[in-house]
Structures are given as structure tokens and as C-alpha cells.
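WARN retry 2 of 3 for item q-0093 after timeout on previous attempt; input resubmitted unchanged.
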Amino acid sequence: MKAPAVRRASLLVGAFLALGACSHQDNGLDEEINAYPAHYKADILAAMHAYLNDPTAIRDAAIGDPALKDTGGTTRYTVCLKFNAKKNNTTYAGVREIAAVFLVGRFDHFIETPKDLCSGVTYAPFPELQNLQP
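OK item q-0093 returned
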């Protein structure tokens, strides 16, 4: 009677090991999730309409290149931005720095205080952000 129980236990252990091995296979999933954001500027411009109360007349806009960064335990493509948006009709809020996070090559969300993510980023002018229409 012990032989069938031992055999069942061996089969269960084998099944768990096989399933465990499957869960560690990449199968390209990381590459798909972290697909390069080919249209990152257009995605960011579209998202800024919802992100800012007044997306017009932005000053000092600058953008970094997409880079794979750790965003709190996961690696994602991020793009750092600097800009000075209006606080109200006549006043500007001051230069802000945010990071756009991408998933499967598309914009996912912004991170408000990306100090670690954006340190050492080389910025280039981003005139498209300064010319957003309402």
C-alpha cells in the first residue's frame, strides 16, 4: 500500500516542479511589456491634456530620451520631463519635473517626484509641449 502513496507523492512533486519551471520562463513577456515607446512624444502630449488644468502656454519644456528604469520594483521605459505650467490665468507654478511611465510601448502614468528616476538625464527642448492647444 505504501508504493501507490509514494508514487502519487512523486507525481505531485514532479507536477509542482514542472509548473514552477514554467512560471520562470520569460517567453518574451518582459520584452513585450517593455516594448520601446516609439511614439512617446505624441503619447505624452495627449496625456498632458488630462494631466494639466491648463495645458496652454507652457514654458521651459524639456524632455529626456526613453530609458529602462526601476519604477518601484518593476523595470519600465520612462521619459523624464521638465516644464513650467500655469498655476492660474496670470501666474506660473515654477519648473516641475515628472516622469512618464510606459507599458507595452504606450503611455501608462506619470510619476510626480521622480528624483531617482530623472537624475543624470540629459534634456532636450520640447517645443511641442510649449505649443499645446486647448
